[in-house]
Here is the input.
Amino acid sequence: MPSNLVKKSDAPETRTGRPFILDPLFRRVTELPGIGPRNGKLIEKLCGSDKILSLLWHRPVDLVDRRFAPKIKDAPPGHVATLTLKVEKHSPPPRRGLPYRVRASDESGAIDLVFFNAHRDYVEKQLPAGATVIVSGTVEHYQGRPQMTHPDAIGTEEDRDSIQIIEPVYPLTAGLTNRTLRKAIQSALDAAPDLPEWQDAAWKERQNTPGWADAIKTLHNPSGPAGLDPRHPARARLAYDELLAGQLALALVRHRNKRQKGRAFKGDGALRKKLLSALPFRLTGAQERSLKEIYEDMESPLRMLRLLQGDVGSGKTVVAALAMLNAVECGAQAALMAPTEILARQHAESLKPWLEAAGVSFCILTGRDKGKAREALLQQVADGSAQIVIGTHALFQEDVNFRDLGLAVIDEQHRFGVDQRLSLSAKGPGTDILVMTATPIPRTLTLTAYGDMDVSRLDEKPPGRQPVETKLISLDKLEALTDGMARQIESGARIYWVCPLVEESEVLDLAAAQERYEILQARFGARVALVHGRMKAEDKDTVMKNFASGALDILVATTVIEVGVNVPEATIMVVEHAERFGLAQLHQLRGRVGRGAARSYCFLLYSGPLTETAKERLSVMRETEDGFLIAEKDLELRGAGDILGTRQSGELSFRLADLTVHAALLAAARDDARLIIEKDPELKTSRGEALRTLLYLFERDQAIQYLRSG
Ligand code: ADP
Ligand code: MG
Here is the structure.
């Protein structure tokens, strides 16, 4: 079939299973009247997709009230007015740099409509001499006479109803006008179908919420400032829809996982006892509590899917070790996966004495092992002679076969998607999974990010930690800082120097780090090194080793990953352009120091002047070292998407929900999702059918496949 006969809606990205009723929303925006390829591209750039649906999610952020329609003489300067005018006379600019003027009038007086850099044809077409026009914009007085520069809207009497309104104002991108975007959105609304109601009838009645179609129309046609408030019933309804879709997707995955048989691991405790007696410390209360939760999960015949959340230094490693030994005591294998080569080796290093004390065999397997050596390692994994395997996440993706993998511990640096977690569990049918994260996430967000998992929190630090003294320093004071550092180095300090994140671009990051490295090297000589993400793993390791052994004094680094290591002798953390980092990131970075006995410092360098929010954010760092508190503050001061680092992964950014306002809705959505799954796990009732539509609407339909394959 010639390709031009293929209808756009038959394009390959159309997913099977999507209810037909949603088709109009999944067509391309260029199918809307008046939206050509150029505007189509701009809309795609602005809204993140070229689907009509994405226009509907694009919320107005402001309003212009164009209902005020006075006579010219009654239009106060500085106010928006919609005027009905007769076009009198065109005066093209007498010379370059001067504006094009159009004189127009009503019975009360005259006004000049002013255009800079205007095309004569365009102005003449818009404002034909002698015609009656409707013009809306801000009235000004210039040399005592009323004028309006670049009216926002020009039309004929027929256009009055679309001009003299409360006009929503949208976030825009260069080249796209609010008028064009608004028109596109209005056409998208016209195309929007009435969808079956997926909300609980009783709930809907109680809340007195509009239906979906009404809500989305109201969102884009606010009747006043209240229409922009996230608490407005229409917006709240849509936010709830979005949250419910997310929670339901997670609940479906969770339900499937729960139904999945796991294995009951209840070891005799012999190996764990050996490890515990080799520890030079006692477990904290939080560690004991988390272990109890983990053991209970492991003992149950259902598969464990648990998140262990704890700040840097809260002692997750020993908890992981004890959990792994529980599996080994039962004759199974356990694996510990780190996000990077360096971290995998670091884990191996810390675990080694403990595993040796317990008499357990282990091996390290990373992408770097090649050829014969690799084969030998794979053999140990396959025949079970390695009871514990420590490696990078690649362990899961590659062709690694375990004899009997009972527990997988995943040390997470970047958040996994729900899908990825599912694929991880494919390595062994009933493998228990424990995910460790050092990113303290506020409770409200834990639900969203990890709603499919149970959570244990290490909210208590091991005793004897030195507080890290944190200082905010302007970049102009750099000299004084480096002088101070020189003295510190003389008395044996080791320093991390983290360079700014530039626009998520690794190349620019690197340039900035390189420059700083050269400056520091000029002053401190060969005892400075640079480590960055583009280096070969071996070279990175060498640098890290030299820093750990004390052969280097200053380690300049580009990203968080490279400093995700344990060097207790490092006592100074410098973060350049700290204002560009998220609080969670800063907190993680700071956690790299203060691990030894010596007093530690964290210098947050900023280039001023800081905005109020930036100031407030950085002060939070100075005031507390509690990661959970910092995360809550961060949520208050930024958006949820920022905290979860989802800008890049795109997975968890909300379009309609704003968790700083809708946290209660999130909790309700979670309960609702649980109830739905309890009562109608296959989504087969009529509400269930409608809920499937909801999942497709928010593109959370990957969860539906688990209904089928379940
Ligand atoms: P995390 O992985 O959570 O960042 P680690 O597991 O690396 O933290 O622990 C940090 C340091 O604290 C390690 O040196 C570890 O041996 C030590 N540690 C862990 N638990 C305790 C405890 N209960 N008491 C004292 N020190 C502990
Ligand atoms: Mg750790």
